[in-house]
Every structure is written in C-alpha cells, then in structure tokens.
C-alpha cells in the first residue's frame, strides 16, 4: 500500500527455473472479468518492478493465458494480451534473450523474424496485428511460457548442462548462507 496513490495492485512472486510449475500449460481465459483484469494489473506491476519487458501468467503460478508486455524505452506503453496466438510467421532472427524466471542468464535464441498475432484486450476487443524486432521476439517468448516452454529449452545440450550446474552451485551457496 502507498499513501496518496490509491492503488490496490500487488506484486506476485516470480517462479525461477527449474521450478516444475514453469512447465504447466495455461488454459484460455473464458470470461474477462474483474478477477482476470486484477491479475493482469498485478502482473504489470510485477513486470515493471522486476525490470522485465514481458511476463506470462505461468511465471507467477497462474495457469491462464494472460501476458503483459512493455518493450518501449520509456516504459510507458503497457500491453495486456489475453489468449494471445501467433497466426503466421516468417523469416529467422537471432536475438539475445533473458527471462525473469532465469535470472542472470542471457543467450542467443533463434525465432521467427516477423509474426502476425492476435489477442483480446481487457475490454474484450480482438486485435490482430504484425510485429517485428523486439516485440516479435517478446510475444513469441511469452506465448512459449504459456505452453510451459523456456528460452533455455532452445540452447544446445552442452549449454543447458552448464547452466544447470551454475544454478545448482548458486543454490548451494544460498543454502549455506541460510
Ligand atoms: Ni521469460
């Protein structure tokens, strides 16, 4: 709670790899009600607070197809995507990605360069549009989350193994501190 700013939004805890809940598949939102809107608002607050450019409901242990994104430099163009879907894609692009669920790790991932995608707004309006560059990558990354998929799934087995070892080591260090 903050004084002077009447806000009821709250922050979610973001799940971290290798939490098995990140592998759950989200179901489509059937009715966009106040509850769904509240989840989206809290996800947005969580995303801004954590410094991410996108967040999927799966990452906060909610198995509904809701995504929030803001790829703008000034962090002032929030997008809420309900039941987002990729309709068409073309080209191949490689970009360095990171993820709030895999903190501190970044690597190149190959994805479609241009996409056409659709989603519902919180008002229930159906939007269909094209994306390229960072937005295209972000939409693909977040929809993957809804399907229980992480960007590190695209890495070579060797790189994945190295990453797992690194995470194990970090967890051990943390356990010692506690
Ligand atoms: Ni992510």
Shape: globular
Superfamily at the CATH H level? Peptide deformylase
Order of adjacent strands in the largest pleated sheet = 1-2-3-4-5
Helix/strand-derived category reads alpha+beta
Regions with pLDDT < 50 over 5+ consecutive residues?
A: none
- What is the H-and-E element order? HEEEEEHH
Please, how many helices? 3
Largest sheet: 5 strands, antiparallel
The strand count comes to 5
CATH architecture: Alpha-Beta Complex
CATH first level: Alpha Beta
Portion of residues in helices?
25-40%
Briefly note the CATH topology name: Peptide Deformylase
Report, as a whole number of angstroms, the end-to-end distance. 29 Å
Which small molecules are bound?
A: nickel (II) ion
Radius of gyration: 17 Å
Strand content: 25-35%
Mean pLDDT: 93
Tally of domains? 1
What would you note in describing this structure?
By secondary structure, the protein is α+β, with helices and mostly antiparallel strands. The protein has one domain: Peptide deformylase (Peptide Deformylase), CATH 3.90.45.10. β3 and β4 form a beta hairpin. The protein binds nickel (II) ion (NI).
In short:
This protein is α+β, with helices and mostly antiparallel strands and 178 residues long. It is built from three helices and five strands.
Sequence-ordered SSE layout with sheet pairings:
Elements: H1 34-50, E1 54-56, E2 66-69, E3 79-99, E4 102-120, E5 126-132, H2 133-146, H3 157-177
Antiparallel strand pairs: 1-2, 2-3, 3-4, 4-5
Bound molecules: nickel (II) ion (NI).
């Amino acid at each position: 709670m903050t004084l002077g700013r009447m806000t009821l939004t709250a922050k979610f805890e973001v799940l971290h790899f290798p939490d098995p809940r990140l592998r759950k598949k989200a179901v489509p939102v059937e009715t966009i009600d106040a509850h769904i809107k509240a989840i989206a608002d809290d996800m947005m607050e969580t995303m801004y607070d954590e410094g991410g450019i996108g967040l999927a409901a799966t990452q906060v242990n909610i198995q509904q197809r809701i995504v929030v994104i803001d790829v703008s430099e000034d962090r002032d163009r929030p997008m809420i995507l309900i039941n987002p879907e990729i309709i068409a894609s073309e080209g191949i692009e490689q970009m360095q990605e990171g993820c709030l669920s895999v903190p501190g790790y970044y690597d190149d991932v190959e994805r479609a360069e241009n996409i056409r995608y659709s989603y519902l707004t919180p008002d229930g309006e159906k939007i269909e549009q094209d994306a390229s560059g960072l937005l295209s990558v972000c939409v693909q990354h977040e929809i993957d989350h809804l399907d229980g998929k992480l960007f590190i799934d695209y890495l070579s087995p060797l790189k994945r193994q190295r990453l797992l070892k690194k995470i194990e080591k970090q967890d051990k260090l943390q356990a010692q501190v506690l």
